[in-house]
Write a structure and sequence with these properties.
There is one protein chain. The protein has one domain. The chain is globular, with a radius of gyration of 25 Å. 23% of the residues lie in helices and 13% in strands. A three-stranded antiparallel β-sheet has the order 3-7-8. The protein has a three-stranded antiparallel β-sheet with strand order 5-4-9, with no helix packed on it. A two-stranded parallel sheet has the order 1-12. Helix 2 crosses helix 8, helix 6 crosses helix 8 and helix 9 packs across helix 13. Strand 7 and strand 8 form a beta hairpin. With 540 residues, it is of the alpha+beta class. The chain is built from 13 helices and 18 strands.
């Protein structure tokens, strides 16, 4: 699945042997030769994003928020306009003084993009205070639940008849659980001020992992409890005679954390053929790593009238969205409740909650203005998408450090690169998200350290929830570029899809399934070697 360095290693060993054989001497001396260490080609690379790399982000809390330095003047102007939009906090409609800011909800998870992608990075991991068993998610939560009905059988091929294998929405709820709402979102709003579709509670369970050398690490896993759904106020999973559609046994739920948003345009500009070349669904090379492509519904293609609106999934935790445009505008409509040209209907349109909300509030917040236009204009939408496409990738740090260099060799040795594919070259022509690609993204040699494919990561990380062709155990390989600055940008950020890992070491130890062999090799390393490997990852 990746270029090997074994040939260069053998050449070095043979050359060394020939040199030793030709040496003079009495023949009495025997000198042990130590083969020269061979390091991967990416060991000394610093410009992870090619010409879009920024080299001044190493100590900045805004290290993920720099425009790509190779943007032309019009591109920079559009990027900066999109930056303002990304930071915009929306309000409840109607807002006569600032009509451009209204339209929040009626149910939502956060009021602006930045709340889930703090400083363009990860959201804060919720903390359960000492002495409390759990916390209720509120306005400060950047995590939410995806929801869907369990399918009768796995979906193998997406067609119009099976909705292209999309997750099955929960009747009267949808595919995402919105734990917040505007003032009168619920019929029982006087008892549930600013309540959403249901209340969500978070708690943690822990387990201890022991290394062969006896050292131990405590891992935590977030658990959720959903209570008080709008269609059956006060019900919980423990209630008798459950009536809520949300609390039925065939409803699947899974945590989702906000992800960093830099470098996304580069990832979309990777030629599809280069990603598909890494697919090894039947593990033909015997490395216990397969890698599958997800094919997903593409709203851009559908809007253009494509008869088969399906594309390669590239974004989202399960590669369940095809482009930055679909991802960004889907979140604008879903997470925040702001309709836009790509998603002009409210996320809960057609549900009893939405119908009663409109009646209760006099239809003042219908998701469109008096002319039928969505809440976010085309210009607003284009600019915020362009912003997410053209954020700079932070340069590596400490690449010349001896321990970091050794860590790169160990990264290769334990086969982390089997999934975290180091290098790609972006395409030089074409579109992304149905729009002309920015010149700054074209022809760039990049090092995202991701193959962009799905992998079975084992039962411990599974949420059991399929998403298009991805099964409940599969996750897309997260790019590693910039990961070493995560805590600099947001000290409370966590790793993995639900933020359970507080450190890179914890994240590695959660890797199972196809990654189990690599995890076992990592655990078998000495303390020094484990530290070196982590130092390399932290340099990215």
């Amino acid at each position: 699945m990746k270029p090997t360095t074994q040939l260069s290693y053998l050449v070095a060993v043979i050359a060394c042997s020939l040199l030793l054989g030709g040496c003079g001497g009495s023949g009495d001396e025997v000198t042990e030769s130590v083969p020269e260490q061979i390091y991967p080609d990416y060991t000394d690379v610093t410009a992870l994003g090619g010409d879009t790399t920024t080299f001044d982000a190493s100590t900045s809390g805004h290290g993920f928020s720099t425009p790509a330095p190779n943007l032309n003047a019009p591109g920079l102007a559009q990027h900066l306009a999109g930056d303002v939009n990304f930071e915009t906090a929306f309000t409840t409609a109607p807002n006569s003084e600032h009509p451009d800011l209204d339209g929040l909800g009626p149910v939502f998870n956060n009021a602006d993009c930045n709340s889930c992608h703090q400083r363009d990075g990860r959201n804060s991991t919720p903390i359960v205070p000492v002495g409390k068993a759990r916390i209720k998610l509120g306005s400060d939560a950047g995590i939410f639940l995806r929801i869907s009905k369990a399918p009768n059988q796995p979906c193998v091929t997406g067609t119009a008849a099976n909705n292209y294998c999309a997750p099955i929405p929960v009747p009267n709820f949808g595919g995402q659980l919105f734990h917040r709402g505007v003032l009168k979102a619920r019929a029982d709003w006087e008892q549930n001020l600013f309540g959403g579709q249901a209340d969500v509670y978070l708690s943690y369970e822990t387990k201890v992992v022991s290394y062969p050398d006896g050292s131990q690490v405590t891992l935590k896993k977030p658990l959720f409890a959903v209570e008080n759904p709008f269609d059956a106020p006060g019900e919980t999973k423990q209630s008798s005679n459950l009536t809520s559609n949300l609390l039925q046994d065939d409803v699947l739920m899974g945590w989702r954390n906000g992800m960093p948003v830099f470098g996304l345009g580069l990832l979309e500009a990777i030629p599809e053929a280069d990603i598909l070349a890494l697919v090894d669904e039947n593990d033909t090379n015997g490395d216990k790593i397969s890698g599958r492509a997800n094919y997903v519904f593409d709203a851009v293609k559908a809007q253009k009238g494509d008869t088969h609106p399906v594309s390669l999934g590239r974004f989202g935790w399960k590669a369940n969205t095809p482009s930055v445009r679909v991802q960004s505008l889907g979140a604008l409509r879903g997470d925040i409740g702001i309709t836009n040209p790509l998603f002009p209907d409210e996320s809960i349109a057609g549900t009893s909650m939405h119908d009663s909300y409109l009646t209760r509030t006099g239809f003042v917040d219908s998701g469109s203005d008096e002319h039928g236009a969505p809440e976010a204009s085309a210009a607003f939408s284009d600019d915020v998408v362009f912003y997410a496409e053209t954020l700079a990738v932070p340069a590596r740090r400490n690449s010349g450090n001896a321990d970091v260099r050794e860590g790169a060799r160990l990264f290769e040795l334990v086969n982390c690169s089997g999934c975290h594919q180091p290098r790609f070259v972006t395409k030089s022509t074409g579109e992304i998200g149905g729009k002309p690609m920015a010149e700054a993204l074209k022809g760039q040699t990049i090092y995202p350290f991701s193959d962009m494919l799905l992998h079975d990561m084992g039962d411990e990380l599974a949420d059991g929830r399929p998403d298009f062709l991805a099964n409940g155990n599969e996750w897309r390989t997260r790019p590693l570029w910039g990961i070493g600055l995560t805590k600099t940008v947001n000290p409370q950020a966590g790793f993995l899809h639900d933020g359970r890992a507080a450190t890179i070491e914890e994240a590695i130890l959660w890797h199972g399934g196809e990654a189990q062999t690599s995890t076992d090799k990592f655990m078998a390393l000495s303390v020094t070697e484990r530290t070196q490997l982590i130092d390399f990852v932290m340099s990215l």
